Automatic annotation (TrEMBL):
The lineage of its organism: Bacteria, Bacillati, Bacillota, Bacilli, Lactobacillales. Belongs to the purine-cytosine permease (2.A.39) family. The chain crosses the membrane at residues 142-160, 166-187, 244-267, 287-306, 327-349, 355-377, 398-418, 424-445. CDD domains: SLC-NCS1sbd_CobB-like. GO terms for cellular component: plasma membrane. It is a multi-pass membrane protein. It comes from Pediococcus cellicola. The keyword Transmembrane applies. Keywords: Membrane, Transmembrane, Transmembrane helix, Transport. GO terms for molecular function: cytosine transmembrane transporter activity. It comes from the Bacteria. InterPro entries: CodB, Pur-cyt_permease, Pur-cyt_permease_Fcy2/21/22. This is Purine-cytosine permease related protein.
């Protein structure tokens, strides 16, 4: 009993899976139809409109193929992504992807909370006259906004999985209304032709490959949350197609709005500043008012419902004796603390881009190893009971699959080296090349090892 408790895995049995196609679709639209996606759209405006669109389509489509692959793994096993990672990294070795998942989803929660808190400062300015964040004395409105958002997060996660579904259903309706409203305002002031022909100042231009890496880091972050939700559906096509379609629609839609809104401000003001990608700044400059700020706050909750669920699952995988609900409380409080970091760094944009660099560097190799292991090595069949069994088939050596761990580390180093190659930065980006290389090496080495054992 002690061993089982220590390495226990929460498997959702098929009779208890009731997540519909609409719920799954809404979850992934809501995950991407949020402030962070809007902000990323504004950042890739540095590629120009058409360059940004091409990078968005290429990077997002490839990334969400992996979301479908991980989604099917969740449907097949009934386990979270981090529990599934035990099969490829070892029961103890899965602490590596779990730590990565914990840090990145806490980070994404902090990003969305910070943006929503900025909107809160605008709301407080309208209601009681407090200075807006960015003005003298504006920090108090932002700090109160962070506290309010964190309380709302605690309330939503305490109500369980059903509350997340309700938040997503309400959120997606508000998102549709808000995006249509903003689209009308943007194209009322600036024509599509002007946006399409806008030229990025030479010294601010972003290489296409760098935009691919930025978007890959953003999109791949959702991939390691895939199984956390698809394990709640009992239909294969729901697990595979709903996340892909929903996430792609969400990212194309909201990143497009962030892209065109940022360019429209650059056209009307004559100045391109990536810091203006902040949704609250854009909404304020477009004159959308308090209602827009409230919607920004609510859409932050839809995205963070997914972020916190994934971060909580990572803690639960590392410490199975801590219940998922307690894990969710822990990560929510941790995310609240992390949200204050940009106040000390001085630039939200600098903190955000540094965070994206970290995500792109560590996530790609993990996803590549997991997919190759499940689909090519084990032919889509994992022994579920062994995911929690000491000295079982996924125990490897001392609970760690050292080959997977070593290749993950090599993949991180390879990513950093690839980023230094000028043509990769200019044309392809390092992320997907790195994932291909790690996947090939993992497959070849495992097959050679298995062949030697058979002989």
């Amino acid at each position: 009993m002690e061993t089982k408790d220590r390495y226990a895995v929460d498997i959702v049995p098929t009779p208890h899976r009731h997540m519909s196609y609409w719920d799954m679709f809404a979850t992934w639209v809501g995950a991407n139809a949020n402030n962070g996606t809007w902000f990323v759209g504004g950042i890739i405006a540095a590629c120009g409109f058409w360059g940004g669109i091409r990078a968005l389509i290429v990077a997002s489509s490839i990334s969400y193929i992996f979301l479908s692959l991980i989604g099917y793994m969740g449907y097949k096993t009934g386990a979270t992504t981090m529990a599934i990672s035990r099969a490829s990294f070892g029961i103890r070795g899965s602490i590596v992807p779990s730590l990565v998942n914990l840090t990145q989803f806490v980070g994404w929660t902090a990003v969305n909370t910070f943006i929503a808190a900025t909107s809160m400062s605008y709301i407080l300015h309208s209601l009681i006259g407090w200075p807006i964040y960015g003005q003298a004395g504006g920090n108090k409105g932002l700090i109160l906004g962070i506290v309010i958002m964190s309380v709302l997060h605690l309330i939503s996660i305490s109500a369980g999985q059903r509350s997340i579904q309700i938040i997503e259903r309400i959120g997606i309706i508000l998102v549709i209304i808000f995006v249509l409203w903003e689209s009308i305002v943007v194209f009322r002031d600036v024509s599509f032709s002007q946006i399409g022909h806008w030229q990025v100042p030479t010294h601010q231009k972003m290489p296409f490959g760098a935009a691919i890496d930025t978007l890959a880091a953003f999109n791949l972050a959702w991939v390691t949350a895939g199984a956390d939700f698809t394990r709640f559906t009992n239909k294969k096509h729901v697990a595979i197609t709903a996340p892909f379609i929903g996430a792609d629609i969400g990212v194309f839609w909201f990143a497009f709005i962030g892209l065109v809104a940022t360019i429209s401000i650059a056209i009307t003001s004559g100045i391109y500043d990536a810091n203006n990608s902040d949704p609250s700044t854009i909404a304020n400059r477009l004159g959308l008012g308090m209602i827009a700020m409230i919607v920004i706050v609510l859409t932050s909750m839809t995205a963070n419902a997914v972020n916190l669920q994934a971060a909580g699952s990572a803690v639960n995988n590392m410490f199975p004796r801590i219940s998922l609900k307690k894990s969710l409380w822990i990560v929510t409080i941790l995310a609240t603390i992390v949200t204050f970091i940009p106040l000390f760094i001085g630039s939200f944009l600098d903190a955000f881009t540094a965070f994206l660099d970290y995500v792109g560097m560590v996530l790609g190799p993990i996803i590549s190893i997991m997919c190759v292991d499940f689909y090519l090595i084990h032919k889509q069949e994992y022994h579920i009971a062994s995911l929690s069994k000491r000295n079982g088939r996924y125990w490897y050596r001392g609970g760690v699959h050292w080959l997977a761990f070593g290749l993950w580390l090599a993949g991180v180093i390879a990513y950093l080296l690839l980023r230094q190659v000028s043509w990769i930065e200019a044309y392809t980006g390092a992320t997907f090349i790195d994932m291909i290389l790690v996947g090939i090496v993992y497959y070849v080495v495992i097959r050679v090892t298995l062949n030697k054992e058979e002989n």
